[in-house]
Amino acid sequence: MGIEQIPDINKTREEIDKKNAEMEKKERERIEEEYKRLSEQEKPTEEPIEENLVEEKKEEIKEWNKSETKEPKEKLVEEKKEEHKEEKKEKGEKEKEKEILENEITENFYDELKKIKSMPDKTGGLKMEKTEKYFQLIENWQDLAYLDNYKGIKNIFSELDKLKPSIWFYDFKKAQITNNVAKSMALNYKEWKIEDKEKPKIIKNFVKEQSKGKNIFYSIFYSKDKTLKEIAKILASNDIPFKNNIDVIVKEIENPDIKAETIARMTDIERESIEKKKQSLHALKEDMKRNKLPPDKMIKEQLENLGIDPKAASEILSETSEILKNPEVQKKIQELRSTIEKVTKKENGKEIPDAVKKVKKYIKDEKKESPWKTGFEATGGIIGLSLLFFIMLILKVENYLADKAGGKKIG
Amino acid sequence: MQQKILNLLPEELRNMTSDLYDVVLERSLMKAYQNLSEENKAKMARVFDSGAEEEKIDFLKNYLGDLQKIMIEETKKVVKEIKK
To answer: In the prediction, which pLDDT does A17 show?
Structure first.
């Protein structure tokens, strides 16, 4: 196989580029129009609960008018007033009870936080223990953290930053928890007792602040833009208006593809029935529960399965570019390249059924969205990482690192 | 996703990892495909040719549920093959 077999490759490439540019232009125009349309929509003013109340009142009036009772209407009015007073009183008491309970819960969380803060953290092991406790507290607190406007949770995040634990997959776990807290903020949007216009700003700033820095591991699963996309979807399913609310979140998404997908999804959700929206939110909550399972352990196990020490592997990965400059490693790359070519060539000779080709294409398609994909994506990512570490191992980078750091091995 | 992580890597590593991942995925799918009955093979062809998104997801869940396990096994085999 050689380049001379494709004589017009540059021309073809130019044509493809031109076509792609045209398609991209059209897509951008479409997104802008969609964004404009959504931004012009006004906040809904009618609350369904109020609608019900109005209907109830109408029914009461009808009944009252139909009434054949001999009692004077004034007496009936008095009775109704009394009933409402009682209802109001009962409602007020329940509200009070709820408030007391909420304060107690929040106080308990703060007590727990105080205890964790007082834990010693001089050694690596102690730091690890303390970090785990902080993570646990965030997970327990996040669904009710709107009660104190997320101050407690934010406090834990700054404590974690101060602690700087050098724990395997700390960044990964932090990214996972950031994602979950942000989603909880969106799920509890209506319960959260602050001005609506403040809420998206708080969510946006929280995600932005906690997603600083780039880490190859958690970028497989989490990123600022991915989280913001999920937030926008939750808010739309919760009937939160786009203008002055969801648009604040969408504007913050930098990746144009993710932004386009988010806006397209907003339009779809808008057309969905209330029942469908409820189902989506329920599925999302279920997903969040599953998300609490630590995928870091899954990755760790898989790497260990292949005989690779995960901790050293993560260090190696962060130094990949530098390692690859090493002449010895370069030589190994060429050798490995030809071995891999032999393996892939063997595959090329095999007959692959059309159905298999199509499923492969479907699995590799980045744009599709499905609940099944989430689980598979994790496995695909782990396999990709494992293969990568394996390549690094073959390249004998452990020798290179051993020279550099004094005897560290990855496998 | 796979592409996203690969994009963060230098080209040499990116190509090698991507090629190996392709081999693993294809071999795993072939294995899962061979385990299907003739009827389900035909169903797979129909669903992935003209089926709705939901049908595809259902098919993967119901008939190729073991694919993730198979992929892990195939990864081990590929790793062994290259080590030889």
So the answer is: 74
Put simply, the answer to whether A387 touches B24 (Cβ < 8 Å) is yes
Residue A395 has pLDDT above 80, yes or no: no
Q: Which range among A157-161, A176-180, A396-400 shows the weakest confidence by mean pLDDT?
A: A396-400
Cα–Cα distance, A375 to A364 (Å, whole number): 14
> Looking at the partner chain, which of B21, B57, B75 has a beta carbon nearest the beta carbon of A370?
B57
What is the pLDDT of chain A when averaged over all its residues? 74
Query: Which pair of tokens denotes residue A222?
Result: 């989490």
What are A216-254's pLDDT values in tens digits?
Answer: 555 555 778 888 998 999 999 988 998 889 999 999 999
* Inter-helix orientation angle B67-83/A295-305, to 10°: 40
**Nearest residue in B to A373, CA atom:** B57
CA distance A89 to B38: 69
What tokens were used for B37?
A: 């009955």
pTM value > 0.80: no
* Residue A149 φ/ψ region, left for φ over 0, alpha for ψ in the -120 to 50 degree band, beta for the rest: left
Contacts of A352 in chain B (CB under 8 A): 26, 30
Any chain B CB within 8 A of the CB of A329?
no
Query: Looking up tokens 């993730």, which residue turns up?
Result: B68
Structural domains in chain B (count): 1
User: Which residues in B4-28 are b (16+ Cβ under 10 Å) and which e?
Assistant: ebbeebeebbbebbbbbbebbbbbb
Q: Tokens at residue B61, please?
A: 């869940």
pLDDT of residue A266: 87
Smallest CA-to-CA distance from A187 within A137, A140, A240, A225 is with: A240
- Give start and end residues of each alpha helix (H) in A6-72: 9-40, 48-66
User: Best of B16, B26, B44, B56 to disrupt the A interface by mutation (most A CBs within 10 Å)?
Assistant: B16
Nearest CA-CA partner of A157 in A225, A205, A223: A205
Half-sphere exposure of A358 (CA within 13 A, CB side): 18
* Domain extent at residue B34: 2-83
- Number of CB atoms found within 10 A of residue A3's CB: 7
pLDDT for position A168: 54
- Calculate how close chain A gets to B2, using CA atoms only, in Å: 6
Report, as an integer, the average pLDDT of A51-63. Answer: 48
Q: What confidence score (pLDDT) does residue B67 get? A: 82
Alpha-carbon gap: B24 to the closest alpha carbon of chain A (Å): 9
Q: Cα–Cα distances in Å, from A49 out to A55, A61, A186, A280, A409? A: 10, 19, 21, 21, 64
A298 pLDDT exceeds 80? no
Residue B80 to chain A, least CA–CA distance (Å): 10
pLDDT at site A244? 87
Whether A383 sits inside 8 A of B3 (CB atoms) is no
CB pairs A-B closer than 8 Å: 137
Indicate if ipTM > 0.85. yes
